[in-house]
Structure formats: structure tokens, C-alpha cells
Design goal:
This protein has 12 helices and 12 strands. The protein is α/β, with parallel strands linked by helices. The protein folds into 2 domains: about 1-150 and about 310-350, Response regulator (Rossmann fold, 3-Layer(aba) Sandwich); about 155-305, Response regulator (Rossmann fold, 3-Layer(aba) Sandwich), CATH 3.40.50.2300. It has a 6-stranded parallel sheet, sandwiched between helices. It has a 4-stranded parallel sheet with strand order 7-6-8-9, sandwiched between helices. It has a two-stranded antiparallel sheet with strand order 10-12. Strand 3, helix 4 and strand 4 (about 130-135) form a beta-alpha-beta unit. The structure holds beta-D-glucopyranose. Beta-D-glucopyranose (BGC) binds near residues 60, 137, 190 and 287.
Length: about 375
């Protein structure tokens, strides 16, 4: 009898996994079935265990997708999920994690706002024997983290910079072009890696004068935007336009690290009288948000980085299964992510640069968005 119930459960789960694989990224999870790395049948059974998921904010589309992809993939495996968003309020995230610990979570998946602020609460998780998986953003300065699922963050910066290099024909000596930088949040370890990736490609063009930063603001401390705020990015663009581009200088490139920044940058340009198609700079981005994709189709934004959050969730789920049921998750990097206490075994997914030339192929043909979503 027990065997029968187990079989029925397994079949039901297989069905619900199959069902969620038909939904695009805007809804729940798509394509990759959740348990590629864990083969045993007990490992695919959540056994009533609870996974607490702490996400940073719902103000940007990607985290909503990440949360729902994780939730549906974990639930399909029989786990109970407690999914919380902290709306970029550091203290709220600490409280949410505290609550997950006291209400008996068996495992935590954390995409931090300010990982420094989580050191104590993560120590508390460890004391309670609750394993922690870092999601997309590394949890710094703690030994409480078991695994890390992310993208190749340095590679994100490289991809964005390579887009600029190719678009502006820099490798063939073109220029000079004016560029301004909009880097990520200083409390997010990813932001530092993104920035390092960008400058690994573009520094030589700043050095030889093919790229000119009129404001002179190229250091991360000067270009970083706290909490990835669209408003701050807009204000920064407004200030730069007023301070350095009001005497006839053209801004050629706004190197934006995040689609949210790109919306703010575009709003500032529009506010200053710039028009798409006339003197409109190249604006990069990251996350392939729906609005960014529409803006790419209309020429308002030039590029973004597609991060398939379905795959990221799948890798993370494999890690959750490993810490809860035993076994080894899929790891492809055991060197890069030193959080100052330990090197955290990681899986790095691949970021892909998107512009108008490959948008349909990458985002629609893969089922990430539908043609209708994009108004095609
Ligand atoms: C993520 C990016 C995202 C940014 C802002 C980073 O940690 O890796 O994909 O654009 O946070 O939410």
C-alpha cells in the first residue's frame, strides 16, 4: 500500500513538473525539470520539509520570477515553501529570516539585500542546524552558507562591455566616444564583479582616449548606485547631463548595469529633451526585463543581459535537495567565490547578451516570453 501511495505521489509530481514546464518566465517555471542532479527517488520527495526563501524585492521583475520559479519547482518536489520579499529593507529581511528560523524552516535560500547585515541571523540558522543556500548574490563573511547558485557575474560585465566594444567598433580604433557608468549596489558582491568585468574590456579604451568619461567618474565608489535604485540612476543621469553635457557634448554610451537603471537613464534623457533616434546614446542593461525588451524593440534601450532564471532556480533546487536529502549537487566552480570566510562551492549559469538582432531567438523561441508579451 505504502509503495502504491509513493508511486502515485511520484507520478503526481512528475505531472506537476511537466505542467510547470509549459509556463513561461513571466508566470512560474519553464523548461528544465527540477531534479537533474539528484537521481534517487527519495531525493525527489520533499517529505513535508519547509524551505524558507528570502528574496530582496518585488520592485524588479526578475526577483518575482526567481521567487515563483523556485517556489513552483520546490513544491513540485513536495516541499512546503515560505517565500518572503523584503522590499529592499535590510532590517525587514533580517526579521523575515529570523521568523523562518523560529517557525521551523529546514533549509534557507537567501538572495540578500545587504549580506553584511545577515551575518548574525545566518549564524543563528547554523546554530539551529538549518543549512543555507545563497541565491544569485553571495552571502559574505559567514561560514553558514553551504552552496551558491548564480550566474558568471564577471562574465556579465564582460558581455556588456563587449557589446559596447563591438557596437562602437572600438577594436578597429573608432572614437572618441563619451561614456558614463552606472554600477550596481556596493553592498551586493555581484556589483563589484560586474564592474571588474566591464573594465577588464573597456579600461584600455579609456586609457588610449577612444572612450572619454566627461565626468571623470569611473571609480566604482563614484558610479555605484545603492540598492539598485532606478530613481538614483535617473538623478545621477540628470546631474551628469546638467554638469558635463550641457555645452553641446554628446553622450554616446550610458553603461548601465541593470534594466531598472536604464529606465531612469532614459527618463532623464527625455527630460533633457533627447529623442530616440536623434543623439540618443547606447544604453545597456541587465536582466532582460519585459519592459527592457520592449524598449530594445523601440530603440530606447540597446542591449540587456538575459539570465535564464528558470535554470538558476533549477540549480538552486538541486542544492536544496543535496543539503536536505544528502548527495552532491551540481557544482561548476569551486574557486571563485571566496566570501572572506570560505570558498563557497558554486554553480555559475551563463549570461547572454541580447539586442534587437537576437531578442526574438533568445527570448521568444526559448519560451521565456511569448510574442504577445512583447507585443510582437
Ligand atoms: C543581480 C542582477 C540584478 C541586480 C538588481 C544583482 O544581484 O545579479 O541580475 O539586475 O541584482 O536587482
Amino acid at each position: 500500500m505504502k509503495k502504491l501511495i509513493a508511486l502515485a505521489l511520484t507520478a503526481a509530481m512528475a505531472l506537476s513538473l511537466a505542467a510547470c514546464s509549459t509556463t513561461g518566465a513571466g508566470g512560474a517555471s519553464s523548461a528544465p525539470a527540477a531534479s537533474t542532479s539528484m537521481a534517487s527517488s527519495t531525493a525527489t520527495m520533499g517529505g513535508g520539509k519547509t524551505v524558507g526563501i528570502a528574496m530582496p524585492t518585488q520592485s524588479s521583475q526578475r526577483w518575482i520570477q526567481d521567487g515563483s520559479n523556485l517556489k513552483s519547482q520546490l513544491e513540485a518536489l513536495g516541499y512546503t515553501v515560505d517565500l518572503q520579499y523584503a522590499e529592499d529593507d535590510v532590517q525587514a529581511q533580517v526579521s523575515q529570516i529570523e521568523n523562518m528560523i523560529t517557525s521551523g524552516a529546514d533549509c534557507l535560500v537567501v538572495a540578500s539585500i545587504d549580506s553584511q547585515a545577515l551575518v548574525n541571523v545566518l549564524a543563528q540558522a547554523k546554530d539551529n542546524g538549518i543549512p543555507v543556500v545563497a541565491y544569485d548574490r553571495l552571502l559574505m563573511d559567514t561560514d553558514a552558507v553551504s552552496y551558491y547558485a548564480t550566474f558568471d557575474n564577471f562574465g556579465v560585465g564582460v558581455e556588456i562591455a563587449k557589446y559596447v566594444e563591438a557596437k562602437m567598433d572600438l577594436a578597429n580604433g573608432a572614437g572618441p566616444y563619451n561614456i558614463e557608468f552606472f554600477a550596481g549596489s556596493p553592498d551586493d558582491n555581484n556589483a563589484h564583479l560586474f564592474n571588474d568585468g566591464v573594465f577588464s574590456v573597456l579600461q584600455k579604451y579609456l586609457d588610449n582616449g577612444q572612450l572619454v568619461c566627461q565626468s571623470g567618474q569611473t571609480d566604482f565608489e563614484q558610479t555605484a548606485i545603492l540598492r539598485w535604485s532606478q530613481e538614483t540612476a535617473q538623478k545621477r543621469m540628470e546631474d551628469l547631463l546638467a554638469g558635463y553635457y550641457s555645452q553641446g557634448q554628446d553622450l554616446d554610451i550610458a553603461l548601465s548595469m541593470f534594466d531598472g537603471f536604464s529606465y531612469g537613464i532614459a527618463a532623464a534623457l527625455e527630460g533633457a529633451g533627447y529623442k530616440v533616434g536623434e543623439q540618443w546614446p547606447i544604453i545597456t542593461g541587465q536582466d532582460a526585463e519585459l519592459m527592457a525588451c520592449k524598449n530594445i524593440m523601440s530603440g530606447k534601450q540597446s542591449q540587456t543581459i538575459y539570465k535564464d532564471t528558470r535554470v538558476l532556480a533549477e540549480k538552486c533546487v538541486g542544492m536544496v535537495q543535496a543539503v536536505l536529502e544528502g548527495g552532491e549537487p551540481e557544482i561548476n566552480d569551486s574557486e571563485t567565490y571566496n566570501n572572506n570566510v570560505k570558498v563557497v562551492p558554486s554553480y555559475l549559469c551563463t549570461p547572454v547578451s541580447v539586442d534587437e538582432s537576437n531578442l526574438k531567438e533568445l527570448l521568444v523561441d526559448s519560451g521565456y516570453y511569448t510574442a504577445e508579451d512583447l507585443g510582437m
